[in-house]
Amino acid sequence: MASRRSPETDRVRVVDWQTILDTFRRRHRLGEHVSCVGPTGSGKSTAMLELLRERGARRARDGRPTRVAVFGTKPRDATLSRTGWPRVTKPEQWPTGYGEEHCLVWPTYGDPATAARRQRGVFVHVLREILPAGNQVVYVDEAAYFTEYPPEGLGLAAALSQYWQVSRSSGISMVASTQRPRRVPVAMWTEAYWLVIFRPEDEEDLKRVAQLSGHKALVLDVVPQLETHEFLLLRRRPERWAVVSQVELDRRGR
């Protein structure tokens, strides 16, 4: 990353990727939402899945690993497949059983003409089941696809907005990433406790995230200077701090 000298950037420390993983595992609490923005190839999906792997290793009150559900939509996704987690493809497969606390809610793509409708049915069912149960981490890989109306998306903006706004009291953490920050509900940014910001490709995208981050000057100062795979991590609540790190894409064979 380029040298930073302004007063805003003087507040930011540079730490290694392992420190990020250790910190997130230790300090993240159920109910704290996480939002991530970055272009294709920046490493945001790998970063989020590694953070969730670390978070999922912690034990819940019942002694079982913290429950983590990752929502996938692509016909193929090597990053998701490499998790090795069991895959939920139909509504009747939820809830998962003992030993399947970490899972992929990933409907079979099949016929492109009906894929979105079938995917939506599975996600709606799972979201309805998770909200009253609570104590769960839910990861949505491309939030814009989930929230935009058909045919561009699944039309689940209301459901995800409800999660961002009211699920905290149930111990549910929403984790969401997007490469299109102007096309997701404002709640994705305003309700997040943790923000992970890779350098967006579009200046207007950067301005939107900066405006809603609560750290506008810092974001506008630091993020344009980030190199490929570097990101700014903002911890917004209850304490506030900021660090820069770089995701290691080659971890676990990546």
Summary, kept brief:
By secondary structure, the protein is an alpha/beta fold. The protein is 33% helix and 19% strand.
Q: How far is the first residue's CA from the last residue's CA? A: 22 Å
CATH topological fold name: Rossmann fold
Helix content: 25-40%
State the low-pLDDT regions, or none: 1-5
Give me the count of strands. 10
Order of H and E elements? EHEHEHEEHEHHEHEHHEE
What number of structural domains do the residues give?
Answer: 1
CATH classification class: Alpha Beta
Shape: globular
Name the CATH architecture: 3-Layer(aba) Sandwich
CATH evolutionary superfamily? P-loop containing nucleotide triphosphate hydrolases
Structural class of the helices, strands and pairings? alpha/beta
Q: In order across it, which strands form the biggest sheet?
A: 1-10-9-8-2-7-6-3-5-4
Strand content: 15-25%
Q: Compute the gyration radius: what is it? A: 18 Å
Counted by DSSP, the helix tally is 9
* Major sheet summary line: 10 strands, mixed
Mean pLDDT across every amino acid position: 92
